[in-house]
């Protein structure tokens, strides 16, 4: 089984990091192919970049010429999953949803700890649309930008742990979801320090994608995610 | 005051039609500039095209070099409004939200009548995110594609009236919102036939945009719609 | 176009203030007629006075003999809008709903800052019924009574700014709505001090009323707001 | 114990009927005093009359000079309960809420069967505000006006049974609430024909009022229902 | 009228205490029979004991050979009410729901003060399922275990008052519900200290059960609570 | 990895069938151990049996002396999952939640098709509590009892397909979840006939349990699912 794990930003080192995290979660026999978008921003921290990433991820997957069995969109709180579902016959798993869905099997309420304050409403919106918000205690920001996570993992762990602890004691979360693709790899550390289960969306998404493939399940094509109708495109795709 | 009204598809005749409808609703002294996206599909009828339109509308507005006072995104149920709000200092009005918001001043519940069945969940999602769904009785599809509306207005009116009547009698709607930018101009006809107020999103958006400008109000920049952070972009914008 | 702006209390100076605020927001060619209820309390700060105001506003509008194009109910969080919609063929706009509806175009979440603590649940109830509560971050009280706002505007601004700041930082509001007809005129000052958009319900209502009139839209009469059925009244109206 | 049961319309025969129904539900030792409002419409079938009734019921209770232990507002889906709670130290029970609250002890979902179609949104709004709507399967209209119920009880029973049956089979209600003060007395008949429990709001309200009195409980005065602040009234009460 | 009040734990002294509280709330002519479950834990403070109590309460009631008119399940936030409703033809009242339902007649929002932190999610879940959560401001834990309430009532009152005060000032509750069967008898004391109405679920349940019996109402049998279908049981009931 | 799959009824042939379905979904290296409860009903079709099953499943798992890595509760819409989570350190997966959670990755809305009409509210309640109801289009009953599914699979498929088709066309479901442990094995057949993805809760639960184990995740023990406190039990467990 081959699963494409698509980064939403164009920073290759982050693609590598996501790919390693995905590979660590994969079953024997699952090949993880980590892709960097063909175009877009070096980090996605707002709606403009996120919308650009949405279309970049779609075009990147369409340009991938080898067969594959599932796709993971590895940006937390980002746009675009619905479009991938239309374009593809194989299952599509968004790490925002994967993280929340997995957390709900582990405790009464969960919280998400993300990067910047401005990402909070984006994540809240994605969880609301996904219908996975009823048991979300809070979405909290560590205040670190996406790329800062990589530059200084110790500081990242400290900042995330602080928010995680507030989520558990004040917001009554019982599980923490790491709300950024770039946090991949910090979960064990944070779990040790907070004592609650910590879900990494990328790892969760890998297991869900594998499960759907093994169960022979994929996106329903009867309505919302039917294949795009034939269109005439102007100036697209860019040469 | 100059308001940009941006079509989401690349069909010029539809841009013209939307522009005329907007101009008809505008106050004296308001200049309507109707824009066609620089790239994208000839009609938007699904998530792939919609995401592409989201980014195309943003780039089109960014490429517009004259001053302007507000922007209307003239695609019903489409993605992208949040990105525009980040990029711009002037008010941004989405016709989906404008239609719903206006309808809520006119009756206890409203319904949206749109084009294809597959657009229904997209519109439901937009209304849910906008927090304008509590008084939405239903979103109904006429079964006509976006371009069919222009080709055969009589058939369009008939199909839309049929759904509007079901919305009023079965779903208990008291107001109908036309759920497609391409329906601009059909409102008077449908109002006559159903006896309930019919809201055209484009016209509603023009009055809301004008109102915000006159009140000196624009998008809050303290969190969700703060300007994008500086980024390094790869292969973007397309040459 | 003539718009009636009806105060909910019988304090003439407050009617004047509301009228001036409305006039400042009106388009050229719009005549604002500010009305004081024929009966009722000198300020409305609870349900008893609010219900009395509801019926007083209705009777006052019915007693107005000149033609008019729209009515604004200028009490924040008060009862009665539904009755006006039944009685009249022209659009009716409640400032509570106008403020919220306008705020929702400007930020991800809004908060209302009102007068007394006891007004908070009333406003929450009106927003809930209007289906405009999903993006309401909080309703906060400044602790000042309605008439104190006029007596000491400086103190009012200070108290309101304090609550507005808490709304932005703690409740994550991105827009502030002034939750009292008597706050008309304080918006510019508060906006300067908080840095977020501040919506005055009266001004917002004027632009919405004008918009509905210009669009030829008015209250749906098919069900909830159909004209009252013929009744025999005992001891009413009072001689 | 003396309980005031206040009709919302000025039709004395309906006050009598409500009083009898209340008395039939009362415990030994409870005196039911049925009051007709001092002013208002002969039947309440819309928001204008309902708002008028709200204030009329309040003034009628205030004009009642004997001691009493609780007040029941005997109009289904009407305005005004909050005002009574402010004015009085004794418990106030609204029959809309009493009926719903009682029904929720009897089955998984309940439906309300009321008079006219236009009453449906009013009842839905009252239940929503009361937070008693989550288990409401539907509010259905029999199509009969308030006074028609008295004129032709057989026809009323037939029309109500028909809607009750649809509520049970189509809307999955397991309990029926009679949604009109004027339906008092029809419950046994309808129960026999539908096989599900039928709750009469007036009878339910009597038992709830008695219970609150016996438990020594009354309206909280710390915030929403604190006594009205001192006011200067213009032209009120009417001479 | 005979009402069975069934404790959920096997501590006889607590059954006695609950029985006394129920008797104090009962009308003349109502006989309260307090039952201790035939099996189970000495206190119920989690889901395992609660599920065990659910089935123990059912078997205990089934083993009761005298006639009775209603059953009260006297465990706050516990499982099992639905099963009793299936098994019995007489009304079943859960004290969690009785307390909430009664509180809703007394103020705009209510809070529950319970024993241990771990009981909070259980109570939240019961209120959500019962559709009585919309006006619940908070569920707060005093930190005392069920049996500690009996051992040291003074300390219990102090701890509960502290949470009640926070509920009123911070969570904006206007009514307090005592969230444990074992708190029966503390209500007067707490009411005196907080100034808001305090509802004891056991007392409230007694009046509701009496009311249902007097109104001739009992559980609907058309669907959810139809009698159990005939089954073959293995190893049950235990010899 | 060893996963216990616990039937909720005492019919051994159904345990076998569930075990086979689970084994078919399991990864190589996963051992499925299907358990029949030590006591309880031969089929669970209502709350009484379901509560009994809840405690029976818990005692059965406690009595299992070999090591295991996860537990699946294989009754659709049944009680008890929270208790298992308290008792165990390993992950617990309920098939109701597993089915819904999986379906949400496959389409915009899903419907559940279950056995008897009376099971519908039970399933709705479980989904509501799990916070997985927002995208549930409907829960529909095929009208067949649990044991009838085994006796006549052809008739079962026909009845389920009919409801599935109504769910897709009328309720706008895009995915079908089989709402009964006893439906295990019918999914492929139904998928073929309806054209939408069909999720079997047992199979879904196996993959989720495996995933949690592989990710090293288990139930959070900080609050709701902390281990039971020490208790003294009367007459339990049964000898």
Structural class of chain A: alpha/beta
How are the strands of the biggest sheet of chain A laid out side by side? 2-1-4-5
Number of helices of chain A: 9
User: What is the CATH top level name of the largest domain in chain A?
Assistant: Alpha Beta
Low-confidence stretches of chain A: none
In total, the number of strands of chain A is 10
> How helix-rich are the residues of chain A, as a percent range?
40-55%
What's the CATH architecture of the largest domain in chain A? 3-Layer(aba) Sandwich
**SSE string of chain A, helices as H and strands as E:** EHEEHEHEHEHEHHEHEHE
Radius of gyration of chain A, CA atoms, in whole angstroms: 17 Å
How many domains of chain A? The number is 2
- Beta-strand residue fraction of chain A: 15-25%
Family (chains A, B, C, D, E, F): Belongs to the HyuE racemase family.
InterPro entries (chains A, B, C, D, E, F): Asp/Glu/hydantoin_racemase (IPR015942), Hydantoin_racemase-like (IPR052186), Iso_Racemase_Enz_sf (IPR053714)
GO molecular function (chains A, B, C, D, E, F): amino-acid racemase activity; hydantoin racemase activity
Catalytic activity (chains A, B, C, D, E, F): D-5-benzylhydantoin = L-5-benzylhydantoin; a D-5-monosubstituted hydantoin = a L-5-monosubstituted hydantoin
């Amino acid at each position: 089984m081959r699963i494409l794990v698509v980064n939403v930003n164009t920073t290759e080192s982050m693609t590598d990091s996501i790919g390693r995290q995905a590979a660590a979660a994969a079953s024997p026999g699952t090949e993880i192919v980590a892709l960097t978008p063909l175009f877009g921003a070096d980090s996605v921290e707002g709606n403009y970049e996120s919308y650009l990433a949405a279309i970049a991820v779609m075009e990147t997957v369409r340009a991938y010429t080898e067969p594959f069995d599932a796709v993971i969109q590895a940006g937390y709180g980002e746009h675009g999953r619905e479009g991938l579902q239309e374009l593809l016959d194989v299952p599509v798993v968004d790490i925002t949803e994967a993280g929340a869905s997995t957390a709900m099997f582990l405790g009464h309420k969960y919280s998400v700890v993300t990067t910047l304050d401005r990402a909070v409403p984006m994540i809240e919106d994605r969880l609301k649309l996904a219908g996975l918000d009823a048991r979300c205690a809070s979405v909290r920001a560590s205040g670190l930008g996406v790329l800062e996570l990589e530059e200084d993992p110790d500081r990242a762990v400290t900042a995330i742990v602080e928010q995680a602890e507030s989520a558990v004691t004040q917001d009554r979360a019982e599980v923490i979801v790491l709300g950024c693709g770039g946090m991949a790899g910090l979960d064990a550390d944070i779990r040790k320090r907070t004592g609650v289960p910590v879900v990494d969306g990328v790892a969760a998404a890998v297991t869900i994608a594998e499960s759907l493939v093994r169960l022979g399940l994929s996106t329903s094509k009867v309505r919302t995610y039917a294949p795009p109708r034939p269109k005439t495109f102007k100036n697209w795709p860019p040469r």
